[in-house]
Design goal:
Rossmann fold; alpha/beta
């Protein structure tokens, strides 16, 4: 055993390894990505780990392991749980043999997600237990408890960390090497493992009865706690509890109720915790889940207790909580004076605005610009997708008209085509997203005779979430070399009319490829293939010749590269940012931009 200074995601990984996890599968997505990466970083005899092609695949791989009696963990972010919901809903009915923990990381804010959805709602919908850690230390302990509860009640369970728990750091005492648990193996029993309506009907009744038992069991769970004895109480969950506890250190008599297992609701614990309470402030992030649960509880038991929170306007309905908001909100509820920071920041300069943009030298910028140039003067719809290429919406590119969810760019382009035959329908998707959720959209396009151009921006990695491998990179999570899955061959096999692979940094060739596809009916594809600048470093950078530069600023106005700026009326290139991609030099009509050896 030794102390390890790790982020919250690392603590979850160490907890799973300490529990003897046999299999870990998942799909990368901030804020959860580092969990699996930490699993493979430590010696882990007998533990198999993989980046699955998407969350649904990960859930099903893990389910089979749990059917064998093995301990399995599957990781994703909150929107990934939507993708995995089909198997998860059925798993709740079928049940498991070995412990199965689903880590779904919520993202209040949201900081890096499409939604602020609340996994506690999903757990209630699926009728499976959920654990809600308030710190990395607690996450380490809870994931081990989650395996125990999963095996005890033969059900998958959810661990729901949030961004500030996932990315906080703490010292965790854990073994230096880990060994997976032994397991009995799969026992064939079609009456148990083959889901049929009759089995689901019987199991539904069992689930409702079992969840009442789990709620009672949770009432004595170590991370459901109460302190203080005041008539006014604070009920908190997740990282919001940590903020509330920090503020209430100065007021130890104030009753603070911590709900570490929101579903099934630990009713007996809460009824005891509410003894003598007249008013409760529910301090939580995302939805008013605890607030609504307490309203139901006091109604069920006819208690004369006032419940306050998001529904009453005492807590903001969206966004993150923090230590400052905890102080303000709780002080207002308790009738205390809250002293704002005494530091005068009125004269401090405002931080510079930093909108998210494509990196300097990103090949996606060149891909977008080539399509924009090819479509000049034409009516076109540009359907984006989830990943770095979402940033193609930024000015001056302005090349993303829609972005809904992973894979939707391909299918939404089809919808635009069917509704507006006079326009060119174009979709943008990345290589990792194509494998995760794009293939079925391509098949749908071919089958339903869509007329569209599919642009696959292939930078040979899963860039936005940390450069994880995918089926097209030739290696897997366990660092084993594997056969590359060819995007081009998949497209041809699906019946795509024309497939052109081009280097996006060759502007003329890329523009010509898009124009060629626009002149062909059916489903066409341009694969813009160039590696991510974060994994392939250049051997030269670009420079400007001030004598030739006429100050037209076309290079700056049209592509928006962060390495380009203006000084003295001339375009200049920041050598610290430039990667030497050469796109700007292809735009300059005056030959003022060229390469310079490092």
């Amino acid at each position: 055993m030794s102390k390890k200074y790790v982020m919250g995601n690392g603590a979850i990984a160490l907890g799973a390894l300490s529990a003897g996890v046999n299999l870990v599968a998942g799909y990368p997505g901030t804020p959860s990505s580092e969990i699996i990466e930490t699993v493979v970083r430590y010696p882990h005899e007998g533990t198999y780990a993989e980046w699955s092609v998407n969350e649904k695949a990960a859930m099903e791989v893990a389910a089979a392991a749990a059917y064998c009696g093995a301990r399995a963990m599957v990781t994703m972010k909150q929107v990934g749980l939507n993708v995995a919901s089909d198997p998860l809903m059925s798993l709740a009915y079928v049940g498991v043999k070995g412990g199965m923990v689903v880590v779904s990381a919520d993202d209040p804010g949201p900081i890096s997600s499409q939604t602020e959805q609340d996994t506690r709602r999903f757990a209630e919908f699926a009728r499976i237990p959920v654990f809600d850690p308030s710190s990395p230390e607690e996450a380490f302990e809870m994931v081990q408890d989650a395996f125990e509860y999963s095996e005890k009640y033969r059900t998958p369970v959810i661990l729901r960390p949030t961004t500030r728990v996932d990315h906080a750091y703490a010292s965790i005492e854990a073994p230096d090497t880990f060994h997976a648990r032994e397991y009995g193996g799969f026992v064939k029993d079609s009456k148990k493992w083959v889901i049929f309506p009759r089995l689901s009907y019987m199991n539904h009744a069992m689930i409702e009865k079992r969840n009442t038992e789990i709620g009672e069991d949770f009432s004595s769970y170590r991370f459901n706690t109460v302190s203080g004895s005041s008539a006014k109480a604070i009920a908190a969950t997740g990282v919001s509890y940590a903020y509330a506890a920090e503020f209430l250190k100065a007021y130890p008599d104030i009753r603070l109720i911590k709900v570490g297992t929101p579903y099934p609701l630990p009713e007996s614990f809460l009824l005891n915790a509410l003894e003598g309470v007249s008013e409760v402030l529910c301090f939580e992030e995302l939805s008013p889940y605890i607030e609504e649960s307490l309203l139901k509880l006091i109604g069920k038991h006819h208690l004369n207790i006032s419940i306050r929170g998001k529904l009453t306007g005492d807590v903001p309905p969206s966004g993150e909580n923090d230590a400052d908001s905890a102080g303000r909100i709780i002080s207002r509820f308790l009738g205390l004076e809250y002293a704002e920071s005494s530091i005068d920041c009125s004269g401090a300069p405002q931080p510079p605005a930093r909108p998210p943009v494509l990196c300097a030298g990103c090949p996606h910028r060149a891909s977008f610009y080539a399509v924009k140039r090819a479509m000049k003067g034409k009516k076109a719809y540009f359907c984006g997708d989830i990943g770095c290429y979402t940033l193609g919406n930024a000015m001056p590119l302005d090349m993303v008209d829609t972005c809904l969810c992973m894979g939707a760019g391909i299918t939404m382009a089809q919808g635009f085509n069917h509704m507006d035959k006079d326009a060119v329908a174009i979709s943008f998707t990345g290589d990792s997203t194509f494998f995760a959720s794009g293939i079925s959209g391509v098949v749908n396009a071919v089958y339903n005779a869509a007329d569209m151009i599919l642009c696959i921006l292939d930078n040979s990695t899963t860039a936005m979430t940390g450069h994880q491998p995918h089926p097209g990179t030739g290696r897997n999570l366990m660092a084993a070399p594997v056969e590359k899955v060819s995007i081009e061959k998949l497209l041809i096999a699906a019946g795509v009319t024309k497939v052109i692979t081009v280097d996006p940094l060759d502007l003329d060739a890329s523009t010509a490829a898009v124009k060629e596809c626009a002149g062909i009916k059916g489903v066409k594809a341009v694969i813009f293939k160039s590696p991510c600048v974060a994994i392939v470093k250049p051997d030269k950078k670009m420079r400007t010749d001030s004598g030739k530069c006429v100050g037209c600023m076309r290079c700056i106005r049209e592509i928006g590269c962060p390495a380009l700026s203006v000084s003295g009326g001339k375009a200049v290139i920041d050598g610290n940012l430039c990667t030497g991609c050469g796109l700007c030099s292809q735009l300059c009509k005056f030959g003022a931009i060229g390469g310079a050896e490092e």
